[in-house]
Amino acid sequence: MSANVRVAFLGLGAMGLPMAEHVLAAGFPLTVWNRTAAKADALVTAGAARAQTPRDAAAAADVVLLCLPTQDEVRDILTRADGVLAGLGAGKTIVDTSTIDPSASQQLIASCAERGIEMLEAPLSGGTIGAKSGALTMMIGGDAAVLERVRPVLESMAKNIFHVGGPGMGQTLKLCNQMIAGAQTIALAEAYALLHAAGVDAKLATDVFAVSTANCVAIQQRVPVPGVQPAGPASNEWRPGFATEWMAKDLFLALQFARSLDVPVAQNAANLQCFEQSMQAGYRKLDQSVFGKVLIDRIDAHARER
Fold first, then answer.
1. Where in the chain is the domain with CATH 1.10.1040.10?
2. Residue 103 CB: number of other CB atoms within 10 A?
3. What are the pLDDT digits (tens) for 101-129?
4. Any idea which residues carry the catalytic annotation?
5. What is the pTM for the complete model shown?
6. Which end of the chain has fewer CB atoms at under 10 Å, N or C?
7. What pLDDT, on the 0 to 100 scale, is given for residue 4?
């Protein structure tokens, strides 16, 4: 696939915007659309075309990339009167990088196939850091031959591209990834709250954990104590690498999917409740690791009441 292949990118949020920047920097002619039009301004200044509707964006493209928060938005952008399917002809390709329910993804891919339109699911891992650096991981569900045709476009945004099976398999793998990542976040929150209550130095504990069996991505990136990791969310006003509301959304999808297959996921259900506590505390837009602050603040409040 040459750089002359026309690409449309719909959804310029915290992940989508840097991803679209990489597509443009790789030399692909790019058309962009976002509900909040101003989010496309920097890309338009850099050389992208601005579409007025999803249909217009699709009509100008050979490959359409979606990066949207929920499956309802994905379905709406595809099927509404001025949506992607209204502007995209047979033989074109949609790549959905959103995280949605596997069965919903299967239904959308089947609906596109009926129109002669190829669609892949390509949920992501790596957060905003990976999106900005172009080092994302993509979990591809769908036709392997279609993946090979669009691989050059995807390689402009992602370092690791895995074909994991047919429709639904990419989303399934992503939800399982989120179950593991979310469990790490909650485990750290509880452990560091216990360290705090016991008076153990958080930086010293982190140095120990980093060379012990507790070491994991969360230990490396999301220690929930300000000052321990200068680049981490806790040291930067909890700015999100991955927001609490999106982790809660993903764990809810995982819970629903597991129930549909009669698979017990008690740990996932408990972790979801913890993220819901963070949202109830007003932290839905902050990094998922802010649950550590919720627990530590609770400990300090109880100590003051004694």
1. 172-305
2. 16
3. 999 999 999 999 999 999 999 999 999 99
4. 174
5. 0.95
6. C
7. 84
